[in-house]
Specification:
single chain, 180 residues, mainly alpha, 8 helices, 73% helix, elongated
């Protein structure tokens, strides 16, 4: 077997520094939880057929990722998953209600819709902080709903998806490992 030179060892070290050293011993957990995350998101996405808002779908995907990355963290608690997304719905409805006060010439402007989305995110941060339901992916939910005007089918999708993700966390939580 050839001897590894110092240069070869340095290249080897640089190559593998991006790989979690625990992966070699816990690869089954890493691969298994990744597959479970994909399956859960697939089930959630099958449940929605009319939603095309990328921010909302990304927010739910982020919730799924948190549950399978760090299932034992505070951010993965079912109360925070559901509470955070419900807070986002509430923030979006408040923003949409205020938007109704403006004339159509303003409310149809792109800049105004972007402003509504930004205000919805700021408002959901406040609501989640006050209610102790902080769940970062819910900011994406607030953004998507704030820009889209919080259509009923999107709200139903969000709540259903949040409950499914929280239920998966409750059922699978004891078997999952923190991967961070």
């Amino acid at each position: 077997m050839p001897r590894r030179t110092k240069l070869g060892a340095a290249r080897h070290h640089r190559l593998f520094r991006w790989i979690d050293p625990r992966f070699t011993h816990r690869w089954r957990a890493y691969v298994g939880q990744s597959i479970l995350a994909a399956l859960l998101l697939w089930v959630v996405l099958l449940a929605q057929t009319v939603l095309s808002n990328g921010a909302i779908v990304a927010a739910i995907a982020s919730s799924v990722a948190i549950v399978f990355f760090v299932p034992h963290s505070v951010a993965s608690s079912p109360v925070r998953i559901v509470g955070g997304h419900i807070s986002a719905v509430l923030a979006a409805y408040l923003v949409v209600a205020v938007a109704l006060l403006f004339p159509e010439s303003i409310s149809d402007a792109t800049w105004f819709n972007d402003l509504l989305g930004a205000i919805a995110v700021g408002l959901v941060v406040l609501i989640m902080s006050v209610t102790n339901t902080e769940h970062a992916p819910a900011a994406g939910t607030a953004l998507g709903l704030g820009i889209d005007g919080a259509p009923g089918e999107a709200v139903l999708f969000i709540i259903t998806a949040a409950v499914l993700v929280a239920a998966a966390r409750i059922v699978l939580g004891p078997r999952l490992q923190n991967l961070l």
